Amino acid sequence: MTSQNCQSIRPLHVSHPRQQGSTILLVVMLTTALTLVAASLLKLGGAERRINRSHILHTEAKNAAESMVEYGFAELRSRWQRQTSFPINALRSAPLAIPPTASTFFAGTGVDYDMLELVGGQIPPGDWRFIDPADPANINDPQKGKLVFSRGVQIYGRAIANHASLGSRQAYCTQTLLVRDAPLFSHAIFYNMDLEFHPGPRMEIQGPVHANGNIYVQAVNRLRFHSTLMAGGDIIYGFKGSEGEVTQTGDVQVKDGDGNWTTFYKGGDRNTSSSYYASDETEDWRETATNRWDGNVGSQEHGVPKMNPVGIGDYMPDDPDTIADEKFNPSYALIEPIVADDHPNFKGEEVRNQQLAYKAGLVFRVNRVVDAGAPGGYDYTISAHKYRRESQTNPKSDVLLEDGAPKIAELDLALAEQRLGKSVLSVNRYSEDGDGRPTGGFYDRRQEQALDVVELDVGALAELIEESVSGASGNDPWNGQFHINPGSAVDWNGVVYVEMPFDPGTSRPDKVMPGSGNVALRLNNGSEVPNPDFSGSSEKGFTLATNGQLYVKGHFNSDGNSSTGSSTETDDAETFDSDEAPVALFADAITILSQNFADPQSKESPSSRKATFTEVSAALVTGLLPTDPGGTAQSGGAHNLPRFLEDWGGVEFRYRGSLVALYESEVGNKPMTSNHSSWYRPPNRNWGFNDLFADGIYPPGTPNTRDFRRTDFRFLTASEYAAELALLDGFDPTSDEDLGHGTPSCSVGP
After folding, report:
1. Phi, psi of 69 (to 5 degrees)
2. Torsion sign (Cα): 329, 331, 336, 338
3. How many CB atoms lie within 10 A of CB 46?
4. What is the mean pLDDT of residues 93-108?
5. Within 10 A of 166 (CB to CB), how many other CB atoms are there?
6. Could you point out which of 77, 228, 558, 733 has its C-alpha 20 to 30 Å from the C-alpha of 114?
7. Alpha-carbon span 511 to 515, nearest angstrom
8. Using CA atoms, how far apart are residues 432 and 648, in angstroms rounded to an integer?
9. What is the pLDDT of residues 154-169, one digit of tens each?
10. Could you give the C-alpha distances from 476 to 425, 463, 467, 492, 519, in angstroms and in order?
């Protein structure tokens, strides 16, 4: 076996010297080739690294240019959150400015701070646009289904990145910032805080719904949203009072993009919150909600913004778990009286421009005066005045100021009422008989409060305004003091403010000045509201605001006929040609009383106060007391935002308008509690979004909310960039300030 193996091994072959030389030559050639290949590969690798470095340098420049545009957006948002007017050249007179901190931000990169550029374009006049919910491009637009007034402003950015061996790379870009104003009453329901739904009877919500805080939903029977449901916070299924626990098992539905009712319920135990789609229970909530409701349900994860009235800061509730009072209630300023600009509670010019007391064409002041002969040692006087404005023919022009306070002209209210033959305003002091029954004023059982009442006869006010129109009567009740004469002088602009007694000396961080708690305003005879029919600078419609509690008795801005109109449709079924006025009521708290409400029975149980069918057509802007999770205080939910004091069981309250909770109540500040059956029983809520508002016909003085949206980002070539900047009126390409190297107007960092 061994020899066979040895025979099978061949001896080593030794090459001939000539063959050996050929082999060496072949090895040399192969080695040279490999060396050349290796050198080529090394050269290629170096070129690729150079290309990569160049790409990184270019990307650095592009990112820096984009960051300039982003900073421009942040600065404009900071500027324009409170600004009411937008001159076309606003960004020439006050150019955007790159913050000095940008030099630190870009330290360690190739970005040349001195060569950065940030330029704002011209501001267009803007136009009204309907955000079509059927357009796929608007699927996650929180304003879809609304009319918004939109302005698109171009922002331009440029950056240069340098490298010692690669040289420099430049990048140019632009993007449009849409500044969109949506009238407050473009929403069926708007909450500046947490919004709660937990109704007993079925409810149908017809128009867009928005909350700056969280939205809590559940229902005993069924709750349906016909339009969008948007929260600047989270959407939570359950009851806020029990910290999100599900306490009602009725169905909650929102329409999807095809108009199909789509539920929040996903199966399982209906008493368990995990059985419902909600932002706090669904891991992929953003995608799930978008796909399930086609963008009709959105929360902060979808980019839903918090929208404040223009000029107004963010609301902050008190934290019940701390001793300190953190409440910050800036929107309350909209219903507060005007103070001079040297007053410690003056909130600034932009806020004053938004206040209803400043916008008003007619102001009534209720003053409490010392009177030793009157019950309690005090009584009330009522006066009327108008503002002196820059233009006599434009009742919405700026108010003239004197020593920082509005210039006013007193009106002879007594003369006007005498010539009219009836009182417009009167005082009804609270009093009781020997048995404790009210004989004057009335008692609010929810507030547990006896109230002096300022009675406003809305029908008489309408007559007073109509009689003031030139040519309507030979006997002007104002004796020439108050003008409604288009083309000559116009004082009426549709906004009336009733100033109730208040303490101007309060000192709070939010500078809120609450009114007196024991006097309230009641509107009577309101089927017809002031709405003079004449052309001119006056707006159609009527807005009334007060800093006190407001009670609305009987049908308001409606015919009170259950067979005409609906919760959305006007009584004459018209919008643009309707005789029904667009109306808004602003107050600390708003309570609806039926015509059956009798003051002497106001201290008795609800069974003594049986309501009758009542119809109200008006936007209601009011306050509430927020729910304390785990506590006894409740807001009552949106279904209790208008307050009630009667037994409405089985009785319809028909409402068409827009419900707005804009601030915490400071006067009517008793919360809803679990014993609410001791003061009322809920009505059959036939509530809807007014067709007038849906078609963009709003009451005079309507505040706007504002949001900002980025669109149309694109990179530009150097020539495109230069050409677009050359089209800007007043732009100087040699000016450091025009190129963004001036003094920043805000402290927003890149």
Report:
1. -65, -40
2. positive
3. 10
4. 90
5. 16
6. 77
7. 13
8. 26
9. 999 999 999 888 889 9
10. 19, 11, 7, 14, 32
pTM of the model: 0.89
Amino acid identity for residue 589 in this structure: A
Are the C-beta atoms of residues 538 and 570 closer than 8 Å to each other?
no
What region, left, alpha or beta, does residue 142 occupy, with left being phi > 0 and alpha being psi -120 to 50 degrees? alpha
Cβ contacts of 541 within 8 Å, gap of 6 or more: 494, 531, 581, 582, 583, 584, 697, 698, 699, 700
Scanning the structure block, which residue is given the tokens 């605001």? 545
In the structure encoding, which two tokens stand for residue 645, read together? 């004091």
| Domain regions of the chain by residue span | 41-182+707-726, 193-302, 361-702
CB 443 within 8 A of CB 678: no
- Closest Cα partner for 458 from 362, 353, 335, 537? 362
Half-sphere exposure (CA, 13 Å, Cβ side) for 452? 18
Residue 428: both structure tokens together: 């009804």
Specify whether the CB–CB gap between 748 and 96 falls below 8 A. no
Secondary-structure percent of the chain, ordered helix, strand, coil, rounded to 5: 20, 30, 50
Question: What average pLDDT does this structure show over 445-474?
Answer: 88
Q: What is the pLDDT of residues 695-726, one digit of tens each?
A: 999 999 999 999 999 999 999 999 999 999 99
pLDDT at 42 exceeding the cut of 80: no
Residues 6+ apart with CB under 8 A from 37: none
Assigned token pair, 27: 């090895």
User: In this structure, what token pair is assigned to residue 602?
Assistant: 């106001």
What angle, 0 to 180 degrees and rounded to 10, lies between the N-to-C axes of helices 413-420 and 458-467?
A: 90
Q: Does 82 have pLDDT greater than 50?
A: yes
Of the chain, the percentage scoring pLDDT greater than 90 comes to: 74
